[in-house]
Amino acid sequence: MLGHTWIQPCARPLRSWALARAPSRAYSRWSSYNARSQALRLTSFQHPWSRSEPRVLGAMTSPAPSGTLLSATHGLRAQPFCLVRRLLQSQTTGAAVDQVSTGGESSSNSQSAAGPQASRKVVGYWLMASAVSVFGIVVWGGVTRLTESGLSIVEWNLIRGMKPPRSEEDWEAEFTKYKQFPEYQKIHRDMTLEQFKFIYFMEWGHRMWGRMIGLTFILPAAYFTYKGWMTKAVKSRVWIIAGLVCFQGALGWYMVKSGLDHTLMDDPGAVPRVSQYRLAAHLGTAFLAYTGMYFTGLSVFRENNVARNRLSSFTSLVNRSAVNPLRHSVHGLTMLIFFTALSGAFVAGLDAGMLYDTFPLMGGRWVPPSEDLWSPAFADPHPTASTNTALPADMPTGMWRNLLENPTTVQFNHRVLAMTTFTAISIVYLYSRRLPLPRSTRNTLHALMALATAQVTLGILTLLNSVPTDLAAVHQAGSISLLTASLTLMHLLKKVPK
Ligand code: HEM
């Protein structure tokens, strides 16, 4: 690797050599390098005996490791040799640098042990396409839940489950299986075979889409790893995401199983639906996988831009310390959006949106009565088993369950979190207007503000109309769009390494 400490002593003779011989474009880039005198900058440089296009040479941030040719030449001022050594170095390191900057054919033997400095752009495109696919499946999953289709397939088989019923007998057999479970017996008793085909198709489509995401993520990940097209950091993130994708498949079935539980039949008041905890975990994992894919995709594009030195004007604005408060608060906003979305999954899981269909008041009050919000009915089912002596004897334990199981409290929490998120986004947006920011960052801030407004409006409309499928599905898509805007902003505000 070239260490900039080594380049410095050679700069003067190279500059005069370049002045005399090199084409003006190559020289101007070289002199701009010299002026900035920065590590991790790339500069064009014409090989003296080559007629080819100027090629990109990398100057790395790290000092030359001891014992290498570089460290042997470090501090060398014997100028004629210096140039020769530099050119030799360009030959020996050229392959690796080209591979980074142009994405030329890689081979593991031309790379350093640490892998390439920038992942291939194709990795970025693939991650973005995967993120789009996850966005789609989240919306499809929402519609599947809203059309009460999620419990229509009562078995899970990775391979055999891919084949949908074809003949009328197959359909009848599937319908008969469905009839054994609480959802049919309690809610869908008058369902026809044609209606069953629709809900079956929704759930089958969701599962097939999930399989496709698994396949189109894991196979390319293995290929790119084999080819060495990813940096170490990107590779480890990609494999964590692959793990999340597999986990999500298992979690999906674990969630569906909770809605097929036969004990639901024992309690006359019980509603056959999946556990809100498992639904929230399923949505949360989808959001995490999406975040990983999208953010890593953006990082790959940035790695390439940094390697090509395409970010300098952007860097000077974004790296300013005046931007630090904005940088930090956008992290907070992203967390807030994530937790608001999770609380929304609890609203959806408990059908809590059907309750209190007014806004901003809930049952004519800003805050529902405390006995509704904090009801002993949702406390631990066996309070006497508790050993918590810090509580009064007549006070049931596990009152915290109200936060996650009481539909009134869950809806109230979602409203409060949503309005907090909206207010925080508005404050950050207004604050950012005073800052000199690159245009892309400013536009993303506009988008974030607009999406937050749209999302709150959609949420209110969903509530006022008692959760119609179309509005609720768009509200779900809105939450992931809002997260996307905030992740984009987080990425744009990330300091660029100098
Ligand atoms: C930052 C703002 C908001 C975000 C990020 C957000 C996010 C979400 C998410 C992710 C869901 C789950 C959807 C599903 O699993 O199908 C949800 C559901 C819901 N949200 Fe919001 N929400 C926001 C604001 C609001 C507001 C202001 C209201 C109304 C006051 C609201 C009312 C609802 C309702 C009623 C549901 C249940 C819909 C259903 O059953 O499918 N949301 N929200």
TrEMBL record:
Q: Does the keyword Transmembrane helix apply?
A: yes
In which pathway is this protein known to take part? Answer: Porphyrin-containing compound metabolism; heme A biosynthesis; heme A from heme O: step 1/1
Keywords, alphabetical: Heme biosynthesis, Iron, Membrane, Metal-binding, Oxidoreductase, Transmembrane, Transmembrane helix
The UniProt record lists the keyword Transcription? no
Coiled coil where?
A: none
Leader sequence range is none
* Molecular function via GO: heme A synthase activity; metal ion binding; oxidoreductase activity, acting on NAD(P)H, heme protein as acceptor
In the bilayer, the protein is annotated as: Multi-pass membrane protein
Localization, per the record, is: Membrane
Subcellular location, principal: membrane
Enumerate the cofactors the protein uses.
heme b
Q: Name one GO biological process term.
A: heme A biosynthetic process
Which Pfam families does the record cross-reference, listed alphabetically? COX15-CtaA
Catalyzed reactions per annotation = Fe(II)-heme o + 2 A + H2O = Fe(II)-heme a + 2 AH2
Q: Which InterPro entries match?
A: COX15/CtaA_fam, HemeA_Synthase_type2
For this protein, the parts annotated as crossing the membrane are 122-143, 208-226, 238-256, 276-301, 336-356, 412-432, 444-467, 473-493
Q: What GO cellular-component annotations does this UniProt entry give?
A: mitochondrial inner membrane
- PANTHER family assigned: CYTOCHROME C OXIDASE ASSEMBLY PROTEIN COX15, CYTOCHROME C OXIDASE ASSEMBLY PROTEIN COX15 HOMOLOG
Name recorded for this polypeptide: Cytochrome c oxidase assembly protein cox15
Question: What organism is this sequence from?
Answer: Dimargaris verticillata
